[in-house]
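Quick review question:
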């Protein structure tokens, strides 16, 4: 699914404030601390709670294996000012009609627009390096912040579901989609900028 350019752990995306890179074993303590926060985990479909460093390490190993096969693409978000400090994760997995996003951001970093910046870069890169016609996401109906962030990136609600995946089986969930032909529209409307660079060996 994903081309050779993304299957090497030197692949990175750059935005104004972030580097997005493959997760590393050294990220496990930070991932455990941030994703282990119930206020973060509860919005996701599958992050267990409590969440240990062993859980995080298994997740990292699985992510790197999927990345290397081109079966998925999971990237760690790091601040440019602290490039070794992870603040969240964004993942892209194939689904029946394109690619689906999954993401979380550590609670200390909420309210800064960081995940919106990351998702804008990720969708930009996905449409450039894959042939996907759509990128989708599932969000809880009550998660108004995530919905607003995705809408700012150009996603629109296409489905209202009685339940979602994982722990959200009984929770009203929204299906949101960004089609390829709407890809550039959010930048024209909101002034968001594309990824400054993407590829191998960025410094």
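Suggested answer, residue by residue:
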């Amino acid at each position: 699914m994903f081309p050779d350019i993304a299957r090497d752990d030197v692949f990175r995306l750059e935005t104004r404030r972030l580097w997005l890179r493959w997760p590393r074993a050294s990220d496990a303590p930070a991932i455990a601390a941030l994703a282990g926060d119930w206020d973060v985990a509860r919005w996701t479909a599958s992050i267990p709670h409590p969440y240990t460093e062993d859980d995080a390490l298994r997740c990292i190993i699985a992510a790197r294996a999927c990345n290397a096969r081109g079966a998925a693409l999971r990237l760690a978000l790091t601040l440019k000012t602290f490039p070794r400090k992870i603040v969240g994760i964004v993942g892209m997995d194939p689904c029946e009609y394109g690619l689906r996003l999954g993401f979380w951001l550590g609670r200390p970093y909420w309210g800064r627009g960081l995940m919106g910046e990351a998702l804008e870069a990720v969708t930009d890169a996905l449409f450039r390096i894959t042939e996907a016609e759509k990128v989708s996401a599932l969000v809880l109906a009550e998660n108004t912040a995530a919905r607003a962030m995705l809408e700012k990136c150009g996603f629109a609600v296409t489905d209202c579901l009685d339940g979602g995946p994982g722990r959200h089986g009984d929770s009203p969930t929204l299906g949101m989609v960004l089609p390829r032909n709407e890809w550039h529209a959010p930048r024209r409307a909101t002034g968001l900028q594309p990824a400054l660079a993407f590829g191998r060996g960025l410094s």
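Why it works: The longest helix spans residues 53-69. The CA atoms of residues 151 and 157 lie 8 Å apart.
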